[in-house]
Design a protein that fits this description.
globular; binds ligand PBG; single chain; alpha/beta; 333 residues; 12 strands; 11 helices; TIM Barrel; two-stranded antiparallel sheet
Length: 333
C-alpha cells in the first residue's frame, strides 16, 4: 500500500512508544483511602479483598509503608462502634474521637504525609445517612451543615491538611471554608466531593464501615441517598456543582465514582482550572479483585490500565485502594 501516514511507525519500539506517551501514572498522583477501627485486631473486609480495618498502631505502619512507596496523601475513614452512633452524629466532632486521635498519631510519626479527612455524618449516624434525618424522613440540609463545620474544625485542629466533604449538602463548602477561616485554619484546604453520584458502586465501602442506611426506629429512613447524591443520568448538574464549589472556595474538585464517570472527569477538566480528583471507589476495586481471584484477568495490568484511564480523562489525582500495589508495580517497571 502507498500510505503517507503509518501510525505504527511510532509504536515500533518501547523507546519510541515511551517518547510519544501522552499520560503517565505515578505514586504521587494517589490518595490512599484507609479504614480504621477501635479494636486491637486487624480485620479483613470481606467485600474488599486486600483492604483492612486497621488498628491505630497498624494503620500508622501502613501509612509509613505508603510513604516509602512514594504515596504522599492518605484519606481516613472510621468504623465507629454502634454505641457511639446517634441521630445527629455528634461523635463526628468529638475532639477525642477516633479520627482526631489517628490524625495526631500519624502527624507525630510521619509528619510530611498529607492527611485528607472525610466530612459527612454516615459513619456516626444511627440512621446511616450523611446528614440528619428528620422525623418525616427528610435529610435536613442546613442543620447538617452546622454539624459538618464542627467536624471539619475538629479534624483541622488535629492536623488534617485537606478536608473532604462527601455529604453533598448544599452550601457546605462555603460554610466549611468560613468556619475554618474563623478558627485560624485558612491554610487547610478543601477537596470537595463535587460530583458525587448516588451509586451502587459504594456497596463494599458501606460494608467496610457498616454505614448503610438502616431503619432503627419508627422513622421513615430513606433507603438510598438520592435526595442528596446526584442522579447517575446527569452531566450538566455536575458542572453546576463544580461552579458552586469553586465559588464557595473549594481547592480541589472530585468526581465519584470514577470509572463509570470518565466523561464527567473530562467535562470538569474542561470547565475548571482547579485540580480534579477521581475516586476509584470500592465497587470498582472489588470487581477487579474478584475477577483476578478467579484468574479471569491480570490484576496488575488491569489496575494500571484503569488508573491510566483516569489520567487520560483529565484527572490529576486518584483516590484508590490499589495505591500501594500500584506504587509497587510502578517501581518495578
Ligand atoms: C460517605 C462516603 C461514601 C464513600 C466515601 N464517603 C459512601 C456513601 O456515600 O455512601 C464511598 C467510597 C467508596 O465506595 O469507595 N460519605
Amino acid at each position: 500500500m502507498e500510505l503517507t501516514y503509518r501510525p505504527r511507525r511510532l509504536r515500533r519500539t518501547p523507546a519510541l512508544r515511551s517518547m510519544v506517551r501522552e499520560n503517565k501514572v505515578s505514586a504521587s498522583d494517589f490518595i490512599y483511602p484507609l479504614f480504621v477501627h477501635e479494636g486491637n485486631q486487624i480485620e479483613q473486609i470481606s467485600a474488599m479483598p486486600g483492604a483492612n480495618r486497621w488498628t491505630i498502631d497498624t494503620l500508622v505502619e501502613e501509612v509509613a509503608r505508603a510513604w516509602d512507596l512514594g504515596i504522599r496523601c492518605i484519606v481516613l475513614f472510621p468504623k465507629v462502634s454502634e454505641s457511639l452512633k446517634t441521630e445527629g452524629g455528634e461523635e463526628c466532632f468529638n475532639e477525642k474521637g477516633l479520627i482526631p486521635r489517628v490524625i495526631r498519631k500519624i502527624k507525630d510519626e510521619i509528619p510530611d504525609m498529607t492527611i485528607m479527612t472525610d466530612v459527612a455524618l454516615d459513619p456516626y449516624s444511627s440512621d446511616g445517612h450523611d446528614g440528619i434525618v428528620s422525623a418525616e424522613g427528610v435529610v435536613l440540609n442546613d442543620e447538617t451543615v452546622d454539624q459538618l463545620c464542627k467536624q471539619a474544625i475538629v479534624q483541622a485542629q488535629a492536623g488534617a491538611d485537606l478536608i473532604g466533604p462527601s455529604d453533598m449538602m448544599d452550601g457546605r463548602v462555603g460554610a466549611i471554608r468560613e468556619a475554618l477561616d474563623d478558627e485560624g485554619f485558612e491554610h487547610v484546604g478543601i477537596i470537595s466531593y463535587t460530583a458525587k453520584y448516588a451509586s451502587a458502586y459504594y456497596g463494599p465501602f458501606r460494608e467496610a464501615l457498616d454505614s448503610a442506611p438502616r431503619p432503627v426506629n419508627s422513622k421513615p429512613i430513606p433507603k438510598d441517598k438520592s435526595t442528596y447524591q446526584m442522579d447517575p443520568a446527569n452531566t450538566r448538574e455536575a458542572i453546576t456543582e463544580a461552579q458552586l464549589d469553586e465559588q464557595e472556595g473549594a481547592d480541589i474538585l472530585m468526581v465519584k465514582p470514577g470509572l463509570a464517570y470518565l466523561d464527567i472527569i473530562y467535562r470538569l477538566r474542561e470547565e475548571s482550572e482547579l485540580p480534579i480528583a477521581a475516586y476509584n471507589v470500592s465497587g470498582e476495586y472489588s470487581m477487579i479483585k474478584a475477577a483476578a481471584e478467579k484468574g479471569w484477568i491480570d490484576e496488575k495490568q488491569i489496575v494500571l490500565e484503569t488508573l491510566l484511564s483516569f489520567k487520560r480523562a483529565g484527572a490529576n489525582l486518584i483516590l484508590t485502594y490499589h495505591a500501594c500495589d500500584a506504587a509497587q508495580w510502578l517501581k518495578e517497571e
